[in-house]
Amino acid sequence: MVANLETVASGLVFPEAPRWHEGRLWVSDIPAQEIVAVGPDGVVERMHEVPGRPGGSGWLSDGSLVVVSANDTTLVRFDPAGRRSVYADLNGIVPARLNDLIVDAHDSVWVGNLGFEFAPGSRVRPTQLVRVDPDGAAAPVGEEVWFPNGMAITPDGASLLVAESFAQRISAFPLQPSGELGPRRTWAAFGSAPVPCDPVEFMAAAVMLPDGMCLDAEGAVWVADAGGCRVLRVAEGGEVLREVKVSTGDRGVFACMLGGPDGDTLYICSSLPMHRHAEAEVSRNGSLLSLRAPAPRAGLP
């Protein structure tokens, strides 16, 4: 049964990578090539243009916003005055387009990439996260991951959680004092182990495609299922505590974020699937939905 959700904002194209920041929900509207912020009154304010298509974003300790510019494989920085500059150029470091990122408490930026490009004859391949240090140095880190998507950092700063869409799992990596990632442990598994395969066939058969996610104060994860038109609240170990069905298949769900005045409003990004982006740009029926969650936000982002 489709859940009864409140519509917070509409008229977007493909909202993704939601972040709660200073009393508003900031969202990357990818095909529209802009970052928008939505206030409690539902008013959408266009904050920054990102012609390379924005992905994940996060704030540095000086108040600057760092955003993925997916198509040109860079991170762009907007200082508090709104001035834009290139923060890191990852061409030659990653094998495919960038997607999400997270900024930790030490201003290191952890960046994901697809690992492969969607094209006829392409195969799903693993990749690595990239860590961009405050001095601009960037390098791949950690074990192989399969289509890393949403990320979260636990409240104690000890672990980085990564939604591996094409592994159907959430993995946890210790954040070591050296800045390296420790060995993976499976935080929650939803389907079979990853193997190189045709991406379209994999998505059609997948049990769960974990995408954008966030942590709550009870240690659970809210995670979007990009293939299932739903969000799940999941406990470590994989127990599904709650399922929220957003549509019967005509709309996708790609990310979620806890926020609001008390931190217990779950915001959900919903739109037509990405492969229908041309239609979405005309219809602009992407929206932000919400519901009251049982526990407030915790950790990062």
TrEMBL record:
Organism this protein belongs to: Actinomadura physcomitrii
InterPro entries, alphabetized: 6-blade_b-propeller_TolB-like, SGL, SMP-30/CGR1_Lactonase
Record's keyword terms, sorted: Hydrolase
Gene3D superfamilies: TolB, C-terminal domain
SUPFAM superfamilies: Calcium-dependent phosphotriesterase
Pfam families for this protein: SGL
Keyword Hydrolase: yes
Keyword Aminoacyl-tRNA synthetase: no
Residues annotated as domain SMP-30/Gluconolactonase/LRE-like region: 14-271
Protein name: Gluconolactonase
GO molecular-function terms, A-Z: hydrolase activity
Similarity section: Belongs to the SMP-30/CGR1 family.
